[in-house]
Amino acid sequence: MAVVVVGRVPVAEFALEETLSAVPDVEFNGGRIVQSAEDEVVPVIWGRGGERAAVQAALEDDPSTEEAELLVDLEDEWLYRMRWTDRVHLVLQMLLDSHATLLDAEVASDAEHWSLRLLYPTHDELSKTYDYCTENDVTFDIRKVYEMDEEPAGQYGITEGQFAALEAACEGGYFRVPRETNLDAIGEDLDLSHQAVSERIRRGMDSLVSETLLIGNSRQK
Description:
The protein is α+β, with helices and mostly antiparallel strands and 221 residues long. Helices cover 36% and strands 26% of the residues. Keywords: DNA-binding, Transcription, Transcription regulation.
């Protein structure tokens, strides 16, 4: 049976250490690893907090990145398409080599670890990954493991809750310039908190971009 793992990896061993140090209050959230036509791992991440120009500059100068392309600008949140260095690729490959899926990854400027949620097809595959990381001096700290009876599914990988939030946001004019609604108003319509609406929109947008714009991407570095 598939298992979901909640774990963490030190920022210093993974990615964006210098960006997190350079930009106070910045946070990143990402997931849904996508393989391009060149078999390159191409994740997309959301950023929030701090000034966007400062975040962009820090990402471009960060030694763990080769490129940070801005895909979506929601004023207070930004979606980036990332190209990582070989060091980051190595850690990702260790974590995902056992047919695992990265469901979520998040980190804040004051954190020492990336918090991860990963889906493994079996307990055995999780054990292989943990052993592989240990052998290669990567600190994969497993905090919680639970079985998953069924995985949320839908068109483009969007859950029903994410679809409802995106639909309400689109119909209300949240993505227009200037905006015609806000997260509080959307939350009132859906009977959700500001934070819950924000997370559903971000994760839904993440899935949409991953399953549409980035599928089969063959652009050269």
